Task: inverse folding
């Protein structure tokens, strides 16, 4: 039997550290570090993610034929040189320093370890696993590599400032070949905070600047997108626009003098600046959509391509994606589910497979369930602990989809844990909280008692693929919850919990080949209610990563207002004793102690 060829892709050191393992060109496993460490957007060394994918495959590092990596801050070699002598806790914590510097992958030259630049990795993540033989690629994010560190040919290279940073990159591809057509650079910014990319004049950088202004965090762009429909149109003048094909981003002016400043009380929702923040969110979202549409139309005209692939952090803006799909002129638009920097690991791995090993493209990413599966034994090791059994009732089901659909139809909230975890920021039906979308009160209940987040935040629908056109106004596939669609008027009152204030929903379509168990759950709910839709949100609480392990799932279930946990074929509810334990369940960490240390029966 021929030994498989393994390529390991890595996103390293800065936010969303991740790994992706290819087996003979197919994605075997991928994971983001945050799922393992339980720290959102985890940074630092990458040993945990490497160990995860190797253990899942049952191999060692010696079995890996090629490693390809990226860090957008600096080339990995240069960053590791600095980390060896400089205290940089944002990229290497004191706890990790000894582990990292003694690791054979750290700082050691090797002919099987290659570094590539940021947008090139995004581009490979977008087109290599896509379903198209040829097309165009659009990469837009907050910040990419320095011009001096870019590892691909591109037009106008002699004009780029070595310290300019990638902001946008546009490509055409055919088969395994890809050509860069245009790069948009951000010049270094002046000022006290010049090292922070969101002060630079770029499309994604501006969105992050607005996120910082409104939420105190550059990485809350999804929340800003959700807030935008509450704003009043045109109350704030345009913050960026296209002029003769060039992006113009004016200086951030003194008009924006009401930033959210975290003072410990965290009374964001009570701020008198709220109308101003809503208006700014509307403005930035509208500007972003308009610029992206003009760029996409230019790309269509330049390449003549019928198909478009998108990646980069801005590709997580499902409202803009929906408009591109409807209005830019492409026949089909495909967006890789981990379009942000966690997906860099996929792009690095495929660069190794296609560009270095010169292998053909023969894998299409039809689903995102590329975490490792957990056994029934591992589930029972958690659920059989004495304190867990005291507080819960677990029933083995001979048809978990039928039984879960019944409790969903009775307005119960379900934690749904099945198979391998999804890769990327969206819960797509294996690590999900699922609920009945038929009453508007469900949205408020979930935000207040389950997710513990702001009441304006919307929830997404999962819908049977073959029924989606009945409910939503365009027919583009959306398997990764990365396109917003208008809900048809006749359905808005039937499924109000998933309809945002602007009449849209961030749709996920489901077919049986992608996820048989989730598909059967939707069919069972439809048979009971006549509604082929469920509300789907990530299995976590505000500020926490999506759950990865059975233990993570049980902790979240016991610490929140989730009514039932459907984990494999077990349907678990809380019993009367849970009320007496509930005073202990004040935070995620409190219940974690109970679950982790609870005695087995």
Result:
């Amino acid at each position: 039997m021929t030994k498989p060829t393994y390529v390991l892709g890595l996103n390293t050191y800065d936010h969303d550290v991740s790994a992706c393992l290819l087996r003979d060109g197919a994605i075997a496993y991928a994971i983001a570090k945050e799922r393992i460490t339980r720290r959102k957007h985890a940074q630092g060394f990458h040993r945990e993610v490497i160990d995860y994918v190797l253990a899942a495959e049952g191999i060692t590092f010696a079995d890996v034929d090629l490693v390809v990596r990226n860090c957008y801050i600096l080339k990995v070699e240069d960053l590791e040189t600095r980390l060896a002598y400089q205290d940089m806790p944002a990229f290497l914590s004191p706890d990790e320093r000894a582990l990292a510097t003694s690791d054979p992958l750290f700082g050691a030259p090797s002919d099987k370890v290659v570094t590539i630049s940021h947008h090139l990795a995004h581009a490979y993540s977008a087109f290599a696993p896509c379903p198209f033989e040829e097309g165009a690629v659009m990469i837009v994010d907050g910040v990419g590599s320095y011009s001096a560190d870019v590892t691909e040919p591109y037009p106008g290279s002699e004009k780029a400032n070595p310290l300019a940073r990638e902001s946008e990159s546009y490509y055409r591809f055919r088969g395994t070949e890809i050509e860069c057509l245009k790069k948009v650079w951000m010049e270094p910014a002046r000022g006290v905070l010049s090292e922070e990319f969101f002060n630079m004049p770029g499309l994604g950088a501006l969105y992050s600047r607005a996120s910082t202004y409104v939420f105190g965090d550059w990485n809350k762009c999804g929340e800003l997108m959700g807030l935008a429909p509450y704003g009043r149109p045109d109350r704030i003048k345009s913050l960026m626009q296209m002029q003769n094909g060039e992006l113009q981003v004016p200086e951030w002016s003194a008009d924006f003098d009401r930033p959210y400043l975290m003072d410990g009380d965290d009374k964001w929702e009570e701020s008198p600046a709220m109308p101003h923040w809503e208006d700014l969110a509307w403005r930035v979202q509208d500007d972003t959509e308009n610029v992206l549409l003009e760029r996409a139309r230019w790309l269509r005209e330049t390449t003549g391509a019928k198909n478009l692939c998108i990646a980069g952090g801005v590709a997580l803006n499902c409202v803009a994606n929906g408009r591109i799909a409807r209005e830019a002129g492409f026949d089909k638009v495909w967006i890789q589910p981990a379009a942000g920097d966690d997906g860099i690991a996929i792009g690095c791995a495929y660069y190794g497979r296609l560009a270095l090993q010169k292998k053909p493209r023969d894998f299409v990413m039809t689903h995102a369930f590329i975490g490792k599966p957990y056994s029934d034994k591992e589930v029972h090791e958690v659920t059989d602990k004495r304190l867990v059994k005291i507080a819960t009732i677990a029933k083995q089901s001979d048809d978990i989809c039928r039984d879960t659909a019944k409790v969903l139809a009775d307005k119960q909230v379900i934690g749904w844990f099945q198979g391998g975890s999804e890769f990327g920021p969206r819960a797509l039906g294996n690590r999900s909280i699922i609920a009945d979308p038929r009453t508007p009160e469900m949205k408020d209940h979930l935000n207040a008692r389950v997710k513990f987040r702001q009441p304006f935040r919307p929830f997404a629908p999962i819908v049977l693929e073959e029924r989606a056109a009945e409910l939503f106004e365009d027919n583009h596939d959306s398997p990764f919850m990365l396109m917003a669609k208008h809900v048809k008027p006749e359905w808005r009152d039937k499924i109000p919990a998933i309809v945002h204030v602007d009449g849209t929903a961030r749709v996920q379509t489901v077919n049986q080949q992608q996820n048989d168990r989730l598909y059967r759950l939707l069919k069972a709910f439809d048979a009971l209610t006549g509604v082929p839709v469920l509300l789907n949100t990530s299995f976590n609480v505000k500020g926490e990563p999506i759950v990865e392990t059975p233990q993570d799932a049980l902790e979240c279930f016991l610490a929140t207002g989730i009514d039932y946990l459907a984990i494999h074929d077990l349907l678990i509810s809380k019993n009367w004793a849970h009320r007496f334990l509930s005073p202990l369940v004040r935070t995620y960490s409190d219940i974690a102690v109970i679950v982790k240390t609870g005695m087995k029966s």
